[in-house]
């Protein structure tokens, strides 16, 4: 009897130990499953925590800034005028400005990222790289999309789009003119001195007057930075061509003069020898 009771007790103890071990294993698996599930939820949520959709055309923003830099800033610099902080034409109001300044252009097929030094065959691939890898550098706050100003700044002309064959849209021209005049008022308040007043009038003539269905009105009638550079470049090339030609003509003329003098001297000596003694 005692032996049977001992055997039963040992069997019961083994059963209890095996049951408790099974319970612990099951709990550990549940805990691991819970942590794994929680981790997977965090990983799925992380990529969306800092995602900000950018509804702003990089290409048109670049065209807007090119219009400002080429046809406005030379005259602003000449007046030594500082654009007010509320002016949307300021360079620091362009959300893509930092990325654009970190473009390194070595050759026609060699573009580099200034942040990570990766190389690309074309600028459009570098733009895609900025969008995918350095999107966190964009300050996508209100009022920083330069493309919103394209209607006033003639971006289509800067992007060399062909003129549409359809008739002029008077309502769109009027909207663009109002936007253009509002930029003139905010960037060059006429009550801020003579420089601001002159630039206000200049901006209206340079950008705003062309927003009309009158075919005679053209944008940028005052010219810009590129025209000035081309003029000086043409002048320098012409000078480099004409200056050696001028010296060549002077050299040939002097040589001919010396040759003529020598011939006269020789002829005079010959004439003196022929005289009777």
Task: Describe the protein's architecture and organization.
The chain is mainly alpha-helical. The chain has ten helices and three strands; from the N terminus they run ααααβββαααααα. The protein has a three-stranded antiparallel sheet with strand order 1-2-3. A hairpin with a 5-residue loop joins strand 2 and strand 3. It is extended and about 145 Å long.
Query: Number of DSSP strands?
Result: 3
Round the Cα radius of gyration to an integer and report it: 40 Å
Largest sheet: 3 strands, antiparallel
pLDDT < 50 runs, ≥5 residues: 22-51
Structural class call reads mainly alpha
Query: In what order do the strands lie side by side in the largest sheet?
Result: 1-2-3
Helix content class:
55-70%
Spell out the helices and strands N to C: HHHHEEEHHHHHH
Average pLDDT over all residues: 78
Choose one word for the global shape: extended
Strand content: under 5%
Head-to-tail CA distance between termini: 179 Å
Number of helices: 10
Organism: Urochloa decumbens
Transmembrane segments: 231-252
Signal peptide: 1-28
Keywords: Membrane, Signal, Transmembrane, Transmembrane helix
Strand-helix topology:
Layout: H1 2-49, H2 58-71, H3 73-78, H4 97-101, E1 103-107, E2 110-113, E3 119-120, H5 123-133, H6 150-153, H7 155-158, H8 170-187, H9 194-208, H10 225-273
Antiparallel strand pairs: 1-2, 2-3
